[in-house]
Amino acid sequence: MSANSHSEESNTQGSRSMSMLELRTLAESIRKDHHELAKLRYDFARIQIEYHNAPNQSNWDNFRRELDKLARHLLLHFSEEEARDGFLEVVKSILPDRQTEVAALRQEHIEMRELIGGLSSQVGSPPPVDLREFNELAPKIKQLFSLLSEHDSVENRLIYGVLEQMKQDRRSQTPKH
Ligand SMILES: [Fe+2]
């Protein structure tokens, strides 16, 4: 047992017992991942412009590679959030009145998986015949990015809400002298 374990009481409100330390670690890892995803989105948007400005094989290969990197990271991130001990279940457990938001987030994961799948299947190895064909990808990319940006903001607010609730629970559990 660590020296400060007395200050890391378990949450007893939800179906899953989670210490403040575990919760902070989870919150920090989700925040870091959102930050990483924002960077990947930025890199992908940059290479999209680069290909548009110079539609050659090398830029096309970069475009495909960045899409693949973003897609893999996103799919893994969604699975981690949806896991039995993942962020969404933790929110449900600690903030039961936010179930509707959690269900909406799960639904958005489904929509974003579909958008990613659609994009990945459209982006084949030969470059598009012309820029018009390439530009047809833009609305899907835009939709994915705007959905993702709003989605991550909601999740970040929920992370804050969960941490606040845990602090309140701890305060109310602390015996008064
Ligand atoms: Fe997320």
What does this structure look like?
The chain has one domain: Four Helix Bundle (Hemerythrin (Met), subunit A). Helices cover 75% and strands 0% of the residues. With 177 residues, it is an all-alpha fold. It starts with 19 loop residues before the first helix and ends with a helix. It contains six helices and no strands. The radius of gyration is 20 Å and the shape is elongated. Fe (ii) ion binds at residues 30, 34, 77, 81, 152, 155.
Brief description of this entry?
The protein has six helices and no strands.
Q: Beta-strand percentage?
A: under 5%
Shape descriptor reads elongated
Bound molecules: fe (ii) ion
Total helical segments: 6
The radius of gyration over CA amounts to 20 Å
The description of the largest β-sheet is: none
Report the order of strands and helices. Answer: HHHHHH
Count of strand segments = 0
CATH fold description: Four Helix Bundle (Hemerythrin (Met), subunit A)
Task: Determine the mean pLDDT.
Answer: 88
The CATH architecture can be named as Up-down Bundle
Helix coverage percent of residues? over 70%
> N-to-C terminal Cα separation, in Å?
26 Å
Total separate domains:
1
Q: Tell me the name of the CATH class.
A: Mainly Alpha
Structural class: mainly alpha
Uncertain stretches: 1-15
